[in-house]
Amino acid sequence: MAKAKEEKDGLEEKVLFVNRCSKVVKGGRKFSFSALILVGDGRGKVGFGFAKANELTDAIRKGGEVARKNMVSFEMDGTTIPHEVMVQFDGAKLLLKPAPSGTGVVAGSRVRSILEFAGIKDVVAKSMGSSNAINQVKAAFKALSSLCNKEKILQQRGEVV
After folding, report:
1. Of residues 81, 89, 34, 90, the one with CA closest to residue 62
2. What is the rounded distance in angstroms from the CA atom of residue 28 to the CA atom of residue 88?
3. Which of 40, 46, 89, 128 has minimal CB crowding within 10 Å?
């Protein structure tokens, strides 16, 4: 939707979705806005924020603050993800598959933005079900948080790698 901008703290911020809502009052229509904001450093940390306000700029600013507070990190295997994962959040289903080096990010617009901001270079994603922006983003974050590294799990079990 909007171009990503670099902030002074090394994080990129992007507006994924803006919704305008109107309420009819005595003097006419009163508009309010909600914004879905994505923040990432390109090195394995990414977060999203959803905020509402009566002014668009306020909604975007508040969403950015929420996104910075809710940043998560996840497991990576070089430039891709360690294993295939299929998740469902509400009506949105998301399939993430690791891809060989040089493939790039093959995904829809919102999921693509999340994966690029997270620093993943090679992955194939398929979004099924709902096209609701918030549900797709939450499904993507659920998928990223469910990733685990085989070597770390074997070390935790006490097995030889």
Report:
1. 34
2. 41
3. 128
- What pTM was estimated for this model as a whole? 0.88
| Cross-sheet strand order for the sheet of 28-40 | 5-6, 12-25, 28-40, 45-53, 72-73
What is the number of other CB atoms lying within 10 angstroms of the CB of residue 82? 17
Per-residue pLDDT reduced to its tens digit, 71-120: 999 988 889 999 999 999 999 999 999 999 999 999 999 999 999 999 99
Pairing verdict, β 28-40 and 45-53: antiparallel
> What's the token pair of residue 8?
């002074």
